[in-house]
């Protein structure tokens, strides 16, 4: 089946079997390998992408289901060489160890701050509760998202966030 | 993992979907958000010849109120119920239960109708629907019919829905009397199925319980309606003793099995505690709603 999906702002087309999962389309067809395959059973969140701005698990979506819709992957967070506020937060607060869960965590954090620019620690922990960090580095992941919230609050809308 | 091959249709309208099902319903599976079906397809527990994707149909999500009913579109996502602020206070059981479903990412994609039709005895919505005595509206090319929640769940993953029917909306009585509910769930971690969960809803009339609904999750071949416990509460004052008696009856109605989440005896006792706790919370909320 022919599909046309906006991925990180660019219109991408493909011809896929209906059974092809979105995560496989992104990784194999589009060669966007920032979206990871972890548990493959809707548990871990390594495959998180934003579907029309909201985090979902791309191992549990058919590519044909998102035809005509908009996907953001971790590759879509930075603007050129400038990290997004959340990416900069993970850099500053050492929000990753092995890095496997990081794309998912950063996308969930990004979507949370869009909806709720000043989340409590509890709200951050709830937001990332569908994403597992096998290094158990949750403390710094929470701090990274808090760092990003502060940075965004201090930056006028439209100005580039992040960096030093 | 990936599913076995299937044909795929994404009809542009409900009528088109119903006509596809009228012709090919026996070999077809309806998909809404896909959060229960896709895992089954990947594990190849389900291998339908055709997937009919209704997930992007318009006009089948959101809430409407009329004639004492709250209507919930079958394609309303869990997250939309969890974050809804315009539901009547008497029905706070809905957002409370939604918050416990799966994890935030699944709630962004999964729908209430899909979850109900999946009919997993470990699912949360089934118990909520039984506690609220909800009605389900099923459409087919033959017409429309209403199925009571208590007659809907036939067995594990089995409903009274015909192969050519689609659940289009859920109707819940929206009373103006002092009424409230509560959902209590024990899970090992976020995203795990319930070890045990209990939905309750009570209505008060002159200091006595005039209606009671109790639904049990993960303790039987379907979500269970604890009828004896419900009956025992009608016309009674919500005293500790009366609530304790109902909780005991509900625990007797549970049919849990020993598994990794706990022994059958343990789960029965959790049912007792959750019915007791839920009823006390619901009664307090109902009184508050009146005040």
The global form of chain B is globular
Global Rg of chain A:
15 Å
Count of discrete structural domains of chain A? 2
Give the helix tally of chain B.
Answer: 11
Helix and strand composition category of chain B: alpha+beta
Our count of domains of chain B comes out at 3
Mean residue pLDDT of chain A: 95
Sequence of secondary-structure elements of chain B:
EHEHEEEHHHHHEEHEEEEEEEHHH
What is the name of the CATH topology of the largest domain in chain B?
A: Uridine Diphospho-n-acetylenolpyruvylglucosamine Reductase, domain 3
Helicity of chain B, as a percent range: 25-40%
> How is the largest sheet of chain A built, in terms of strand order?
2-1-5-3-4
Class from helix and strand fractions of chain A: alpha+beta
* Sheet with most strands of chain B: 5 strands, antiparallel
Shape of chain A: globular
- Count of DSSP-assigned helices of chain A: 5
What oligomeric state do these chains adopt? heterodimer
Mean pLDDT of chain B: 96
Determine and state the CATH class of the largest domain in chain B.
Answer: Alpha Beta
* CATH superfamily (homologous) name of the largest domain in chain A: Beta-grasp domain
Q: What composes the largest sheet of chain A?
A: 5 strands, mixed
Q: In sequence order, what are the helices and strands of chain A, one letter per element?
A: EEHEEEHHHH
